[in-house]
Design brief:
- By secondary structure, the chain is mainly beta.
- About 0% of the residues lie in helices and about 50% in strands.
- The chain is built from no helices and 34 strands.
- Strands 1-8-9-6-11-12-13 form a seven-stranded antiparallel beta sheet, with no helix packed on it. Strands 2-7-10-5-4-3 form a six-stranded antiparallel beta sheet, with no helix packed on it. Strands 26, 28, 29, 32, 33 and 34 form a six-stranded mixed beta sheet that branches.
């Protein structure tokens, strides 16, 4: 598998030919509209996915497509959100390009050796209504008819509404297929339940309806892939006893046994540091959107004067947050806390 990690918010395209955000699509058979919308969400945290593009077809042996997602629930979408793109035989991609500002997230993508299966994980807080997308270049194999279905999925462990998680486009007919809901997953076994705290243990989780899944060990995505009946992954680092679950477009299933880490835990990440924030203050009533710049901020939480901020999302060097209300006008210390510790406070000034 080929894996990419976007440290500055940009998942670099895995090809020398890239499609930049906002570039007009000029190749292939143009889709008339994006794939059908999902029904209204019944989940506080909900993500819906769709696709659109200039798909290859007719005389056109190449094209582009976009996979789009929206936070459609009633609360901020948090935690890792998993996306897959599956291409039919004869159609390949050289990877995806994801570009979303500000860079308050981490984004990873993995492409299968045959170029037909892409997995991506976005970790960060997405406010309700926020829409984002990644673009893919598509190529066809000479002599192979352009047919089959492109399937795109999304899944998040906090999303209990399975609707809107699967989008399908039929290259043969040139149309979107009706929305489907993947059956709920079930996990019946896990073959290895112990391994070193440094991670790297091969684990196979078995069950049913696991296709398009993401395995979490202690809430952390484990690299690997899933078929309908099994997921083969490598454990991330950790300590103690960690629950194991599989998150799919149809829901989340917990393994009957957890994974017990042995020996020393992996070293803590470097401590976070804040170098600047914009704006440097706001009304004592709170509600100011603050941009925090620094280093080692991934997965951070933010507090101002010891009071947690809301809508916090952090990437490696950039966080966004909404300042809480202050107790009175004047300076207050803003800090970022991660597994590596808490940053030195930077002054945020409340105004009357």
């Amino acid at each position: 598998m080929i894996t990419r990690l976007a440290k500055a918010g940009l998942a670099a395209a895995l090809s020398v030919t890239t499609v930049a955000t906002g570039t007009a699509l000029t190749l292939g058979a143009t889709a008339a509209a994006a794939s059908p919308a999902a029904t209204p969400s019944t989940s506080a945290q909900h993500v819906t996915v769709s696709q659109s593009g200039n798909y290859p077809g007719g005389f056109f042996t190449s094209g582009t497509m976009s996979t789009s997602w929206v936070s459609a629930g009633t609360a901020d979408l948090t935690g890792p959100t998993h996306f897959t793109v599956d291409l039919p035989p004869g159609v390949t991609t050289d990877g995806a390009m994801f570009y979303s500002t500000p860079y308050d997230y981490t984004f990873t993508e993995t492409l299968s050796p045959d170029g037909r299966h892409l997995e991506a994980v976005l970790t960060g807080t997405r406010t309700v209504g926020r829409s984002e997308f990644m673009k893919l270049n598509l190529r066809t194999t000479p002599g192979v008819p352009i047919a089959g279905v492109i399937t795109v999925t999304a899944a998040n462990p906090n999303d209990t509404d399975p609707t809107g998680h699967v989008s399908r486009y039929d290259l043969g007919t040139g149309g979107y297929l009706p929305p489907t809901v993947q059956s709920a997953p079930a996990v019946t076994g896990i073959d290895t339940t112990t391994g070193p705290g440094t991670g790297g243990t091969a684990v196979t989780v078995t069950g049913s309806n696991l296709a398009h899944g993401m395995v979490l060990v202690g809430g952390v995505p484990a690299p690997g892939s899933c078929t309908d009946s099994a997921c083969t992954v490598t454990t991330p680092g950790g300590s103690g006893s960690a629950p194991v679950s599989v998150v799919t477009p149809g829901g989340t299933a917990v393994a009957p046994a957890g994974f017990d880490y042995t020996g020393a835990a992996p070293p803590a990440p470097p401590a976070p540091a804040v170098t600047s924030l914009t704006p440097a203050g706001g009304p004592v009533s709170g509600g100011t959107r603050v941009n925090v710049i620094g280093s080692n901020l991934t997965y951070g939480t933010i507090a101002v004067g010891g009071v947690p901020a809301t809508h916090v999302s952090c990437g490696p060097s950039f966080c966004t947050a909404t300042a809480p209300a202050g107790s009175r006008p004047g300076p207050a210390g803003l800090t970022v806390t991660t597994a590596g510790g808490t940053s030195a406070p930077v002054t945020y000034t409340y105004t009357a």
